[in-house]
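Hey,
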Amino acid sequence: MSAQKNKAKSIISPFTARVYAYCSLIPPGTVSTYRDLARAIGHPRAYRAVGQALHANPFAPKVPCHRVISAGGRLGGYAFGASAKARRLREEGVVVTKNRIDLEKFRKHWTKNELANSEKQGQTEKFSHKKGALDAPQK
C-alpha cells in the first residue's frame, strides 16, 4: 500500500468514529441496518455514508461491520465478500437464507436509554482519530 493511502486511512473523522462506536454496540447474534445505524448516531439520512465508513473499517473484527446489513434483510456489502459476511453471521447464530436475514428475529433495536447511556459514558470518544488507537466501547 502506498504511503499516501496509509496516510489517508490513518485519519478517522468524528462521524466515522461515531459509526464505529455504535457498531461496536451491536451484540453477536443480532444485526442492524445501515439506516438504523445512521438513525442511532443522529444522522438518519446518512445511511450510505455509514456504509462507506464501514467499508473502510480498519478495526475489524473489533468493530463488527459484518453485523450491519441492507434494508429488507439483504446482506449488503462487505469488504471480504458476501459469502464471508454470511459465514461470520452464521457463526454468531444468525440464520442467513438466500443472502437474507429475518429482521423480525435478528434486528438490533436501539433504545433511547441505550443511546443516552452510550453518550453519557463518552463511548464515541474512545475512537481516536488515528489508526490503531482503538479502544472499543464497553458493552
